[in-house]
Design brief:
Elements: E1 2-7, H1 9-22, H2 24-51, H3 56-92, E2 100-106, E3 110-115, E4 118-123, E5 129-132, E6 136-140, E7 146-150, H4 157-170
Antiparallel strand pairs: 1-2, 2-3, 3-4, 5-6, 6-7
Helix pairs in contact: 1-3, 2-3
């Protein structure tokens, strides 16, 4: 089974967003970043009431609202800021191997990736897992690296299903 395709910046961004949403370490970090500031917002009114003349109910109203907004909107902010950072990083450097034309060959031994800068091979035992999104398959070869297979390479749903069955049988 062989697929040739162009990887673009959006494919790389989609991989990173998928990774953020599925990595146990990153999810724990997100929860920490999401809820610790909210707890601080809830404690601050009790400190500020002692050093200002503003009543507690007013401080509580402001900071409870701030805590709710933080919890609700922080994940969206994190995703959008991640997209901006990744986009800037991709734009600033030479990404010959990461973006552009790729060829993935799947055979009984493993996966062969060919790009204009070279070739890499990995056996099936080196594959950790496969993740599927609406637009991609990500075949992880380590905890932070994966082959990106855009679903646009499949001409039919049957071809996509055949690919997925082949991969699952090898894993």
């Amino acid at each position: 089974m062989r697929f040739e395709f162009d990887l673009n910046k959006q494919d790389y961004i989609d991989f990173n967003i998928c990774h953020i949403k599925n990595s146990e370490t990153l999810r724990k970090s997100l929860l920490f970043q999401q809820y610790i500031p909210a707890v601080v917002y809830l404690v601050l009114p009790f400190i500020l009431v002692n050093v200002t003349d503003i009543p507690l109910w007013l401080w509580l109203t402001v900071f409870v609202l701030a805590a709710i907004l933080w919890v609700v909107f922080y994940p969206k902010y994190l995703i959008s800021s991640t997209i901006k950072r990744i986009s800037k990083m991709v734009n600033e450097g030479k990404n010959k191997d990461m973006l552009g034309k790729h060829c993935l060959t799947f055979n009984d031994e493993g996966i062969i990736e060919t790009s204009k800068n070279g070739e890499s091979k990995i056996s099936w035992s080196g594959i950790e897992e496969i993740k599927e999104t609406d637009k991609h398959f990500f075949i992880y070869i380590s905890s932070i690296m994966a082959y990106i297979v855009p679903k646009r390479v499949f001409k039919t749903d049957g071809e996509k299903d055949e690919f997925l069955n082949f991969i699952k049988n090898k894993l």
